[in-house]
């Protein structure tokens, strides 16, 4: 098999403003996604429709949607499922979930990112268990959920401020753990740099990280781990 | 079962300069590790010996060892296996490997970190396949190894400079992928900040990251993913 | 000839709010340009008109135009060619193109900067070949265009996020290569600092860089290289 | 009383290289301290001796002493008490302790700073209870000491890496709490910036902070709080 | 006594969007607070009402309230006391003040943060003495208030720009001193980083700090010190 | 004479929101100034009126005025002279100018800061000679003005971008030279940090600097130098 | 032709510690280079010898050589030409120069980087004209060399401190211009960040940049431009 | 007169490694200076000797001399006056002082920079009055010297840590004031960035600044101000 044919017509859809990579599912197991930032609502509708046509049997996803884009999608693609908090749209039926990802959030201000993780996990084929508002300032809230979290196939911890949550979690469980820093804080936190640095310097071994507020990338990775781990 | 007994004597070994957490294997599946930085050679020998005594049937690990610490270990714990490049020591027999981690390095200057990943993976119970010097400036070197890498249960990509390797890899495979930035560069790279920022901003979805040069944490996470994924 | 006469009247046009440097074309081969940021629409119209009068046989350029400035230009200088995406205006006839610059963009969000490069290249006297949406997450899209890019006299690679594109390109071709970082990203990217650092730390030798989003300066340099290279 | 006489002879001792502020104890309740950095061993001996002569009934302190300074002090001021880990010297008898400061350390690498806190607390007139190696990666170690810490009049928490310790402590107790970030880490932590940012962004209310590794200033403040709180 | 029961129903109120920690007053002596940023006006009203119901005999506090939230509170909880400058709301009767906190401000631009300190001090049970506009550029204004400040049980110094105030104060008094940097400046001050760095590098020993503009945390700490110090 | 009487009534005017320092002219030779940022239009009017009443024979100044403040001043203090570009107001008659300050600007975008310098120089008692748009990209424009600039008693150079102007000037003249960096640039310049760093690293000896865009402080210093230099 | 065969044996030499990319000259027109940092002297000798064997008719280059590596090369490869200032080694005969690169240095402290540029230019096939110590603090030195510089096919400007040189040069000539920032300064310049920022913010259009002290990359790019421009 | 002759032989001395700018005294009033960093002892001796020959009737200066350079100068130029603390050498007779510069230092650790200021002031033709160890933590020490400082023609304030000294001074006197930040601190102060930022954000108007530890540039500027101010 020739994996990287150059110039062949079949692996790209030319939308004028974008070259959709319809070969990605074959290469990586998951279809391309529409990244909403910097695209007009019309471009987003057009790209999501084209992605769906190329993967009729698999849900496709659009992320980082501004309110105007969400409104346009509601009008032109009424079959799409929209999540305003997570700023996402899903078109088509998600796969049956394989494995479970526990998505653990430190505070209520972290909810939008937590929603981005959860929706992505579903589209990428794993189940999701949301555990909210269990930050370390009230430690008993987290300890009460320890066994539930430890039973998942992968864990995503979402936290802002000083982001102590993943370090505490990392000392309590051995499940693969991804930490998502959020741009939530009370003063000078450099738009989430503090949480990010804290997660990368965790004293608990094996804590993995993504960019600030990047629930999408964490969701992709967690779903991949969970569905491989749990495959029959 | 009472998971967090306070004050009980059985879960901590008091070495005077440290409280060894011998309960960690029960909590997280893997024993504590001796972190060498800031400890004297004598403290490292003493801690490694105590850890080994607490886990006689499982290899234990010491990381970030200065040359003086490695020399002291060679003398006082001749049964230990030492890796000078990775600055690690292993005492006891590693578990039989379950699953495989592909450890992919961009350049020869990244080798020390790649060795830290590889040795850690072994101690934490997975097999390791090292793929070296396949940076993107000579793309054919990486493409030639694509199928080998895609066949692993988890992938760790080690790269410095602009760290393009994980982005290119992330577009070619769907295996869980951890990127380790290294403090290797040709000018002003802020001790690896450039590679770190690049990895966290990867255009490929699902790229996970650890701190600069932190091969240990990447190895822990990769081994956990691999041995869960591959469990029979 | 006395190249730096002091105080002579002929080399500057005094607009009150600005001293137009009408001697620049004689010194450097290209006329001065109107930089729109921080100027009122009326000032921009006045400056562009004066520049045009001083160089009647050569197109003159205005960059970084706010919507209000573009609207005012459309009204008062209907002969000007306006590019809303690139935020540019051109007044007068561009020179016949000498040589070709390939302008290569990683993603659709990079298009505005790519347009700034392309329009500048034209005004500064070279031809332009635009290659869009060929980021490294779908490597086959770039490989398919390799020969087309390698045939240019100069290449400008426009990319945000981790900016791996110029490193991959730099390993595939030997044409002079200018990388333009863009302020496009998915989280904490410091307004393009990540892309900038990545380009300056490219593992491919000979990658040249300009400031974040500075398509104008890249276009000037690329056009100068192309038209010298290709001169008969 | 004239609180700020200018030019009067009685409130300053001129050592040539320094003006000792012998009025400070009257103004603030505690005598001046010799800051060792940037002073020669001879200057340190001379300054400490002069301070002692000015406060014969009260211990005086020198901080941040290089090994050469400690050696010189051992030789010339044999009555001084030296702490090599804390890099401090004390000359004269410390006051009888009033109140208790709990000094809590996350890891063994934090011990030097913890020692600076402890010695300073003593010289400034409070008692000290050291609780070591109770980082959050093994949470049970900290929970086991909770009541002991809660019984103090002030708490100083010393931690590096991601510095989660004060946030967890701040949710468990209501005692005035000072967090000291240390320059201890496993990768890119900017010489303690990570710990510092984390402490300043703690989700637990009322966490106070000092500069990285500045155990001295934390000790001064904690002793002042403790001895006021506990005064009969 | 079992201090950290897991899963028990009595210590948390589930509001759907948040888990109120009603056990905090028992653990730390003060009830939880509603942090307004990132919450809708409706959520803030609901959370403040629930907190008040759980602590009927003790004032509860909401901070960082946007104008819309303040308006909603005025309408739905008319019993609440609102402070627009400090962006705070208080519901219920504050405790009788024990001890006094002097809150000292450098300039008029620092007033909003000074108000946040003062209101918090009251809710957390101490008295407050406000000393405004005594920056060091007119030193006599500060010197005139020296004795008044020195008589407090704790001092909070609020300052922006170069933040020299706490250093000067720290040399004049021995009362526990907390410095709050504000994001006030005349040019490039990095949103208060300058003041923050200055306070952390104070040449006066024992200066404690919180995050930029974080009057709340300073108020909590100062009140705790004052009411312990002054207890009969 | 008693220079720092504490508590005396004569040296401060209490406006409620501010303590006007009416003793400053006696101490430093120039009256206090109203800094507009963070003050309401009403506060600004009130403060400027009070300052004027305290110094009836000397112009007083208000800086950093928002459009609303300028409008309010135009209405309530019609005798005030307003400079919209410089965002300043002057009330009362400026002193007769002693000495001359040359204020040299690199580009048209630097004009607002240049105006702040010029107006301040006048209020603080020196004459001002404005030399605009003489940036180094067209070197002949600057060389043509060299003698004019060299004849001043002090020079203020205002420049953004790479801020090469003061370095070139510093090699051409020996007059005291103050460089003001401006937040003007074409890409990633960190709000003027680039210009600031460049000025502080000037290869020409004796270049003095103030904060970004701080034309006021430069004007104060330049006027003081000029009027001392030129005093008969 | 199949440009990216995967797995074929002919395009890589396996040295154990490195995979030499011997296909690079075919792809980009220039052979691979040995980057000395992080390699042992023995590895450098071995890699340079292998590169030379693969390109017997073309000079090959090793950069960033420590003194120990230079000494080892002098011993084992006596035919190599060594440049201690530029820390380079050349093995084999450089190509006949095509075109000329003017390498312009601001100060004597910039000489090492200037030498790296010059040697690289020669190995990559162009001629080099070195113009030293012409910084802008003595402008006449630069103006005296203007015509000589303007006659080159490409210009490399090497400067530290505030790096005004390329901006001044960019206003005087229209030749393609590459600026190399150096880590030379008099105080806080962040290891060359100042020069780097200044060059990227140059007010002269078309200034291209490389990383701090990266004379090698500038030399590669300049040689490519010069030899294309001047080709017959 | 032709001020910028290009190519004329008389205004530069070619030392091979440097082009001495012997025209500078004519242009700016003061001769060029030898900057020692990055030059060998032999180069420094050679440059200083050449400068002296070109200005036989005027002292010339070399700065930032390493111990090896000072030793070589002592040997080869015994007539030179050496200042080891200030790392300076002076050859020839300084001008008779005109005017006085008060150089005020905050602490003993600031002495080396204070010496650089003082020696430079002398060579550039003004008198110097040193006032040491008057930091604000003991305010009475500074107040006692207020009148002495206010009587100078220019003031240089040298301070590290939080650098409150110039702000306090700036409120007490109206003399032109230059603040020199030093790289002196107790923790994370970014090599003097804290002091630098503080000085640039001073609440006292008219504070001028130079780079960290750059006593030379401050001395040049202060001397120029003083000797102009005081000229008969």
Automatic annotation (TrEMBL), chains A, B, C, D, E, F, G, H:
PurE domain: residues covered: 99-231
GO biological process, one term: 'de novo' IMP biosynthetic process
InterPro entries cross-referenced by the UniProt entry: P2CMN_synthase_LarB, PurE_dom
Residue ranges of coiled coil: none
GO molecular function (one): hydrolase activity
Gene3D superfamilies: 3.40.50.1970
PANTHER family per the UniProt record, alphabetical: PHOSPHORIBOSYLAMINOIMIDAZOLE CARBOXYLASE-RELATED, SLL1489 PROTEIN
Protein name: PurE domain-containing protein
Native source organism of the sequence: Micromonospora matsumotoense
